[in-house]
Amino acid sequence: MKNIFIQYPKCSTCKKAKKWLEENNIEFEERNIVTKTPTIEELTKWIQKSGQDIKKWFNTSGLKYKELNLKDKLINMTDKEKIELLASDGMLIKRPILISERGIFIGFKEEKWNDLK
């Protein structure tokens, strides 16, 4: 399985993560989170495989998250509704995401990504 690096090109954290992958000679297929937003099926599979709570998949610092007042709304939503919402707009999804055989990494934390080496 080839690593899939899902990112937003203007995001500074994504740029930092991409540079780290390149410097560590980790091959990946790049995917823009906005132009090719993950599908409901992909998100369902990845969230389950990651072992992370769905809330961790939301870009809580993003403008869209704040505009939609999701902090309060998510509490009353089902997991299915949350996944549908994430799939509706890539800007709602925390980034970058790296899908690899060694796990699913949400956000860039170098100490965790070191597991890829």
Structural features, described:
The chain is of the alpha+beta class and 117 residues long. It has one domain (3-116): Glutaredoxin (3-Layer(aba) Sandwich), CATH 3.40.30. The protein is 39% helix and 15% strand. The chain has 6 helices and 4 strands, in the order E-H-E-H-H-H-H-E-E-H. The chain has helices at residues 12-23, 40-50, 63-67, 70-73, 79-88, 110-113, and strands spanning 3-7, 28-32, 97-100, 103-106. Strands 2-1-3-4 form a 4-stranded mixed sheet, sandwiched between helices. Helix 1 (12-23) links the parallel strand 1 (3-7) and strand 2 (28-32). The two termini are 15 Å apart. The model has no long low-confidence stretch (mean pLDDT 95).
- Gross CATH architecture: 3-Layer(aba) Sandwich
**How much strand content do the residues show?**
15-25%
Count of domains:
1
Strand arrangement within the widest β-sheet reads 2-1-3-4
CATH superfamily: Glutaredoxin
Largest beta sheet, briefly?
Answer: 4 strands, mixed
Distance between the termini: 15 Å
What's the CATH C level?
A: Alpha Beta
Poorly predicted runs: none
Q: Which H/E pattern describes the elements?
A: EHEHHHHEEH
Instruction: Kindly report the average pLDDT value.
Output: 95
Categorize the overall geometry: globular
Instruction: Give the strand tally.
Output: 4
Q: Rg from C-alpha positions?
A: 14 Å
Work out the helix count.
6
Oligomer: single chain
Could you tell me the CATH topology label.
Answer: Glutaredoxin
Percent range for helical residues? 25-40%
